[in-house]
Amino acid sequence: MTAIISPPLATFGDVTLRDTSLHYVKAGTGAPLIIVPATVSLIRQWLPLTQFMGQRFTSYFFELPGHGGSTPYPEKFESRFVPGTVEAFANKLGYDRFNLMGFSFGGLLALRTLEHLQDRIDKVILLSPSVSRRALKWSGLQKWMFKILIAALKNEASLKGLHRIMNMPQLEKPLTFALSRISKVDRRILESKNALRIPMTTLDVFAHTMDEIFQIEYQYGGLQFSNPCYFGMSINDDMLDYDLTEEVVRRYFHQLAVQKFTHPYHQPPHPPTFEWLNQEFGQFLDMLN
After folding, report:
1. What's the Cα-to-Cα distance from 144 to each of 105, 155, 237, rounded to whole Å?
2. What's the whole-model pTM score?
3. Structurally, what CATH architecture does the domain formed by 10-135+218-287 represent?
């Protein structure tokens, strides 16, 4: 009979930094791990991941400035601000050294942070990282439609109008369906995240992160990072090309451990549970010892 594993206790907090107040969750024991969120991720959606990683680390997950319980930056969101936020967060927590993890767009943010803080980071963990616009499996039409949407969201007047439309109950189902078709994100994921019921500050963060995803071709001025990297991704990822993503990651890490998965999605269609993560990714967690 398989023993039932209970998730580590989670505690929630807020920390005031120079340019934002971060809302975060902490779980587990061991060496510190800071998980950098993907685009507009809420703690409640990724609490099981924080607890899953908490089986090996004292893991922290925070909401990006301008989203959830974290206050916006004084300026428009840009990925170049995130390394300073992670550094200030680690300092507030009292850690000289820590481990770093990123999923999807959080993978790019983790790499940007690594450039800035590589002497303070032990292990780097990348799950299905978005590191190249060429890896996006979107059609030309999908990319064009998203660019139109992003341009509208970056215009103050259009942003307010779209926010009103997105919050009309009668339009929720057709808009969710349309967004699912354009983005290739499963409708159930959008519904579980209440993707149309988000504040304007979050829409602003979303627009600027998506704009960067369409432009990014990750490059690092140095030769290779000396930090060991643990890279996990499905070869059947429906949003990002596996081979191209691994090629980019491999280019910058001399010490690279790879775990290939076979699930047919970038993100699970249902919110991941602690039990499901142990079942599907337990082998990847074992690599991190």
Report:
1. 20, 17, 22
2. 0.82
3. 3-Layer(aba) Sandwich (3.40)
Structure tokens at 23: 């809302």
CA angle 255, 259, 265 (to 5 degrees): 135
User: What are the distances in angstroms from CA 126 to CA 19, 54, 172, 247?
Assistant: 26, 16, 33, 13
**φ, ψ dihedrals at 252, nearest 5°:** -110, 0
How would residue 153 be classed by pLDDT, with cut points 50, 70 and 90?
low
Domains of the chain, residue spans: 10-135+218-287, 140-213
Residues 6+ apart with CB under 8 A from 45: 192, 193, 271
Q: Band of the pLDDT at 63, cuts 50, 70, 90?
A: very high
What sections of 56-104 are H helices per DSSP? 82-93
- How far apart, in whole angstroms, are the C-alpha atoms of residue 273 and residue 167? 28
